[in-house]
From TrEMBL:
Protein's name in the database: Methylenetetrahydrofolate--tRNA-(uracil-5-)-methyltransferase TrmFO
EC number annotated for this UniProt entry: 2.1.1.74
Keyword annotations of the record: Cytoplasm, FAD, Flavoprotein, Methyltransferase, NAD, NADP, Transferase, tRNA processing
Annotated catalysed reactions: uridine(54) in tRNA + (6R)-5,10-methylene-5,6,7,8-tetrahydrofolate + NADPH + H(+) = 5-methyluridine(54) in tRNA + (6S)-5,6,7,8-tetrahydrofolate + NADP(+); uridine(54) in tRNA + (6R)-5,10-methylene-5,6,7,8-tetrahydrofolate + NADH + H(+) = 5-methyluridine(54) in tRNA + (6S)-5,6,7,8-tetrahydrofolate + NAD(+)
Family: Belongs to the MnmG family. TrmFO subfamily.
Xref: PANTHER family: GLUCOSE INHIBITED DIVISION PROTEIN A, METHYLENETETRAHYDROFOLATE--TRNA-(URACIL-5-)-METHYLTRANSFERASE TRMFO
Organism: Paracoccus spongiarum
Cofactor needs: FAD
Protein task: Catalyzes the folate-dependent formation of 5-methyl-uridine at position 54 (M-5-U54) in all tRNAs.
Taxonomic lineage: Bacteria, Pseudomonadati, Pseudomonadota, Alphaproteobacteria, Rhodobacterales
Binding site for FAD: 8-13
Cellular localization per UniProt: Cytoplasm
Xref: Pfam families: GIDA (PF01134)
């Protein structure tokens, strides 16, 4: 049996490889790192998480992301199983120790006898064979050029920024306190999963002034700043209005200052644990394109971070993605070259979970093809099906932009299941329908 080839061992490529091998089909997983480095990656491990350590909400009743978690677990996904083993307290979210997570995914793939991990860059699109391109937003220049040559169009692009990471021991806990918003979580660790730094109004105003005045990274010639709204740099948010951050990542709601319970903070900066040891914390929602020197000065204006030491400062890089509604069919194949499937963030889904889910689906479809079968996508009533429907025809091609999974991508509920009721009724109806339909789809395989 001819192997399926996968280009890229990120979350999507790693999940695709796992699904293919579990179907009894050999797979070759090509990864250019560490021989060919990227701006954002630090290791050569598979499934390295670069922007955050969070898979977002794990609520599979009231949240579309949580429902996507549920579907990936039901399908025997490697990414979710590994995330569950390396999870960290994060309130209602699923956050992981990113280094341990990546190392565990790599070890699992290397231990699978049907998977060969082959080092080196693939710089062209093969004319034949069964291939999955899962190179993610940091597709190499040479391969991106090959993709443009085949598609006949310029790939769309937006800019994604990376949040800074702080050494926990340098946070002043006489100012900051531990608490998840609204004390969310079933255990004390979950309820204290975040470190909170409060700001008074004068402190907030001074911070905004410094943020707006700070020196920013310049764009290269020919690049434009088309940001994905779910990952805006904080200075771009501040430019949209002085109160924008206070109603976004710095909102003070659901939090009580443990040191001054009678004083309501005007704004709050939250940090989330980034590793199992609790020695590193990332600043939540603080993606930035400020230059390094400016970052250090501005972030040390945050109460509790005056003496902060940074394990990593923020950065910015270009994220490329296809205009998938014009290029891919519902089996995730390129229409001009049906031997090529695309998966992950390069298809125009946004987020770790969404990228891995598209890898899971592409892997199952490629394995089915290798076994002489055809696998249709899950119904659009499921989280996975809603995403693949969006990127392969559900979205308007002229305005196509990266999208997280959300209930707006799901078909409307009938009156019996949702109707005009509020979201407390509608969301469980969406996820209940999705569970039924995804289970039925799995049963056909």
């Amino acid at each position: 049996m001819q192997p399926v080839n996968i280009i890229g061992a990120g979350l999507a490529g790693s999940e695709a490889a796992w699904q293919i091998a579990r179907a009894g089909v050999p797979v070759i997983l090509h990864e250019m790192r560490p021989a060919v480095a990227t701006f954002a990656h630090k290791t050569g491990d598979c499934a390295e998480m670069v922007c955050s350590n969070s898979f977002r909400s794990d609520d599979d009743v009231m949240n579309a992301v949580g429902q996507l978690h549920w579907e990936m677990r039901a399908a025997g996904g490697l990414i979710m199983a590994t995330a569950d083993r390396h999870r960290l307290p994060a309130g209602g979210a699923l956050a992981v120790d990113r280094e341990a997570f990546s190392a565990a995914v790599t070890a699992a793939l290397r231990a699978e006898t049907l998977i060969e991990i082959r080092a080196g860059e693939v710089a062209d699109l093969p004319q034949d064979g069964n291939w999955i391109v899962a190179t993610g937003p940091l597709t190499s220049d040479r391969l991106a050029g090959a993709i443009r040559a085949v598609t006949g169009t310029e790939a769309l692009a937006f800019f994604d920024a990376i949040a800074p990471i702080v050494h926990a021991e340098t946070i002043d806990m006489s100012v900051a306190w531990e608490q998840s918003r609204y004390d969310k979580g079933e255990t004390e660790a979950e309820q204290k999963a975040y470190v909170n730094c409060p700001m008074t109004r004068p402190e907030y105003e001074a911070f905004i002034d410094a943020l707006l005045a700070a020196e920013k990274t310049e764009f290269r010639e020919g690049e434009t700043a088309g940001y994905f709204d779910g990952c805006l740099p904080i200075e771009v948010m501040a430019e949209r209005g002085r109160e924008t951050l206070r109603h976004g990542p710095m909102k003070p709601v659901g939090l009580t200052n443990a040191h001054k319970p009678q004083e309501k903070p005007y704004a709050v900066v939250q940090l989330r644990r980034d590793n199992a040891l609790g020695t590193l914390y990332n600043i939540v929602g603080f993606q930035t394109k400020m230059k390094y020197g400016a970052q250090t000065a501005v972030f040390r204006m945050i109460p509790g971070l005056e003496r902060a030491a940074f394990a990593r400062l923020g950065g910015i890089h270009r994220n490329s993605f296809l205009n998938s509604p014009t290029l891919l069919d519902d089996r995730m194949r390129m229409r001009q070259r049906p031997n090529l499937r695309f998966a992950g963030q390069v298809t125009g889904v946004e987020g770790y979970v969404e990228s891995a889910a598209m890898g899971l689906l592409a892997g199952r479809m490629a394995a089915a093809q290798a076994l002489g079968r055809d696998l249709p996508p899950p119904p659009s009533t499921t989280a996975t099906g809603a995403l693949v429907n969006h990127i392969t025809g559900g979205a308007e091609a002229k305005t196509f932009q990266p999208m997280n999974v959300n209930f707006g991508l799901f078909p409307p509920l009938d009156d019996a299941r949702g109707g005009r009721r509020g979201r407390k009724d509608r969301y469980p109806a969406y996820t209940g329908r999705a569970k039924d339909d995804f289970s039925a789809w799995l049963a056909t395989q």
